[in-house]
């Protein structure tokens, strides 16, 4: 069977295991030379090296990168690893992530906030900035971002007479200890920011033949472990939670067949795929020929919500 991406070069951040590792290996199967990026663990063991070895043992081509995505220098070095080893970069998959179970805004520290936002949102920016510079030269490229359904799981509208049930945790994974059940506020904010970044970049980079699409995954990973079927937020329970099930969706978006697909949000979990409508679709629109009064708005808005 012909390899769909033979000769292409990819960078996969957070590629040392889980979703990123599955994607790195799936890209290699299709003929991609892969930079597997992941920071070493506290014991000094490199998960990136393990995935590189798996790819090479299967006949593929890969090198490891150990830089952190949380600095601009790190993002540049990760992309330089691709260019110096393989001469170009065609694909960037942003899987690096972390999570802190902090839902209490009063107790959350600046370091708590920065540690999550820097990995997710700034981590996307640092790598995309460096990769886009190379892709623009080539007038082609594929950028895959990773957001989360947690970005849209917050409450809204009038306060009910009784408290609503807590929202699901990120990726519908198990709830963490250390605070009330729910999601990490910094994680939620960062993942929402990635949605906005994805859509903005799709418009900015489209003229250069570069597509930008987001994956909103659900899988059994180190950050969100568990094999119990997950659902909610309009979806039936997902039966297969192997993170490698997500890889085909990413690989497809990197092919020539997907060259016109950009600025889209894809939920992926097991064998399930959903394409979301773009956020901020108008719900209610009313115009007054003049300036609203506060009393008029008080009568108008609650029924619309």
Overview in brief:
With 305 residues, this protein is α/β, with parallel strands linked by helices. The chain is built from 7 helices and 10 strands.
Task: Summarize the structure in words.
- With about 300 residues, this protein is an alpha/beta fold.
- About 35% of the residues lie in helices and about 15% in strands.
- It contains seven helices and ten strands.
- The strands form two sheets. It has an eight-stranded mixed β-sheet with strand order 3-2-1-4-5-6-9-10, with helices on both faces.
- Helix 1 (about 20-30) crosses helix 6, helix 3 (about 70-85) packs parallel to helix 4 (about 110-140) and helix 4 (about 110-140) runs parallel beside helix 5 (about 185-205).
- The longest helix is centred in the middle third of the chain and has 29 residues, at about 110-140.
- The radius of gyration is 21 Å and the shape is globular.
- It starts with 8 loop residues before the first strand and ends with a helix.
Topology:
Blueprint: E1 9-13, H1 18-29, E2 33-37, H2 47-57, E3 61-65, H3 72-86, E4 91-94, H4 110-138, E5 141-146, H5 185-205, E6 210-217, E7 230-232, E8 235-238, H6 247-253, E9 265-269, E10 272-275, H7 294-304
Parallel strand pairs: 1-2, 1-4, 2-3, 4-5, 5-6, 6-9
Antiparallel strand pairs: 7-8, 9-10
Helix pairs in contact: 1-2, 1-6, 3-4, 4-5
């Amino acid at each position: 069977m012909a390899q769909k991406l033979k000769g292409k070069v990819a960078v996969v951040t957070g590629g040392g295991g889980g979703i990123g590792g599955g994607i790195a290996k799936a890209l290699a199967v299709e003929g991609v030379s892969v930079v597997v990026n992941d920071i070493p663990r506290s014991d000094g063991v490199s998960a990136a090296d393990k995935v590189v070895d798996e790819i090479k043992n299967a006949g593929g081509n890969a090198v490891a990168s150990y830089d952190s995505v949380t600095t601009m220098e790190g993002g540049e070095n990760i992309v330089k690893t691709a260019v110096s080893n393989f001469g170009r970069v065609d694909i960037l998959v942003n899987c690096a992530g972390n999570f802190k179970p902090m839902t209490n805004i009063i107790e959350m520290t600046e370091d708590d906030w920065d540690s999550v936002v820097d990995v997710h949102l700034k981590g996307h920016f640092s790598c995309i900035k460096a990769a886009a510079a190379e892709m623009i030269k080539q007038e082609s490229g594929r950028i895959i971002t990773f957001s989360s359904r947690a970005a849209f799981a917050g409450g809204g509208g009038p306060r009910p007479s009784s408290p609503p049930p807590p929202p699901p945790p990120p990726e519908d994974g198990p709830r963490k200890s250390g605070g009330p059940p729910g999601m990490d506020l910094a994680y939620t904010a960062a993942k929402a920011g990635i949605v906005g970044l994805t859509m903005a970049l799709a418009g900015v980079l489209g003229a250069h033949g570069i597509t930008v699409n987001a994956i909103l995954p659900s899988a059994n990973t180190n950050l969100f472990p568990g094999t119990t079927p997950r659902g909610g937020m309009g979806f039936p329970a997902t039966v297969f939670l192997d993170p490698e099930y997500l890889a085909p969706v990413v690989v497809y978006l990197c092919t020539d067949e997907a060259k016109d697909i950009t600025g889209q949000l894809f939920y992926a979990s097991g064998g399930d795929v959903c394409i979301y409508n773009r956020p901020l679709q108008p719900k209610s629109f009313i115009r007054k020929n003049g300036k609203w009064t506060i009393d008029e708005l008080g009568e108008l808005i609650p029924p619309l919500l």
